[in-house]
């Protein structure tokens, strides 16, 4: 009996998709860098036991498994690496198992979309704060597997900080039930943290217990024009103190990327009468219904030492949405200006201006005319330092420089004790950078963990951990 026949016998016909047109969507990949790589089958179990069965069958036939959530990743973590492997889709594990408003927790299966969790929390007057542009498509299992960040990390933390417990299928097909909803548990190793951010290389997350927070009752949103990135960092620090530490989001945008959104994205408009080299999009939130956030924000921005060139505080939700549309349109708008090379890095917040200056000089020296597009989450140090091709260079010629330009950017981030993978993960795009930039001790520890949890290298092979030698 073939592996596909065994899978169908054990899991049912609806759970197995053989090669053909129905498989095409699972082979697509957001950036197109690893698209249309074949697989023996796509397996869609209906529950965690089905996932465990799939893992055991794959081991019996010597096949690798690529776990796949909403397939919104940007580093090829959910794309196949070998035609003999299986894609394990978690999309049918989409049940919310429990919501406990008094305990401020929610337990959900890995295939639940992020927006579904946000809605479930809102239905009981609570907030699940993880939020980013793909929230209608991405799934919580993938969010945890990549330790997703997004817009609200400054206030609430990454996905890791929102997880209290996990259910995980291990490489041998056993199920670890760690779905605890405790804030304190020092009874041994914190196993869940090994699986969060591991991109399915150590185990397959099938469910999670998550933290909820009080619902937002008041919000204040402003866009600020500034003369420099240094002024933006200083203003962020002042705003954080003056607002009573109510800042939820603080986004930095250079004039270049903002201009791309204005030129190439729909319904984007100049936010201020005068143009500035840099912009800060800041949002304050509170669970109190009369927190006076607009007043706090106004007073902070009007202070003599604020350094704001000009600003607008959104008078209503529609205007705030206009401000956010500018920020969220930048990645897509880059396509209108030609090919781009994406860099997702982080450095200490105070070093952001120096990093941007040094990285811009380095890539311009290597590729004259390149257009650096720096924007991102200034509050947590995560800068998307994207590069748009020179106007006179073809897409193909520019993309041929991907490796050389990316290495320059990563090297400078590391000089500031930063990271070359801030929130998008490693996947199959960056294991070479892990080998190049992480210490031998750190790499050895990673390989030891992989060997301990998945000695046959069947869980998402070729991802995250660089090969030995």
UniProtKB/TrEMBL annotation:
Residues 34-215 form the FAD-binding PCMH-type domain. PANTHER family: BLL6224 PROTEIN, D-2-HYDROXYGLUTARATE DEHYDROGENASE, MITOCHONDRIAL. Belongs to the FAD-binding oxidoreductase/transferase type 4 family. Gene3D superfamilies: 3.30.465.10, 3.30.70.2190, 3.30.70.2740, Uridine Diphospho-n-acetylenolpyruvylglucosamine Reductase, domain 2 (3.30.43.10), Vanillyl-alcohol Oxidase, Chain A, domain 4 (1.10.45.10). InterPro entries: FAD-bd_oxidored_4_C, FAD-bd_PCMH, FAD-bd_PCMH-like_sf, FAD-bd_PCMH_sub1, FAD-bd_PCMH_sub2, FAD-linked_Oxase-like_C, FAD-oxidored/transferase_4, Oxid_FAD_bind_N. It holds the Pfam family FAD-oxidase_C. Keywords: FAD, Flavoprotein. Its cofactor is FAD. One of its GO terms (biological process) is respiratory electron transport chain. The keyword Nucleotidyltransferase does not apply. GO terms for molecular function: catalytic activity; FAD binding. The keyword Cytoplasm does not apply. This is FAD-binding oxidoreductase.
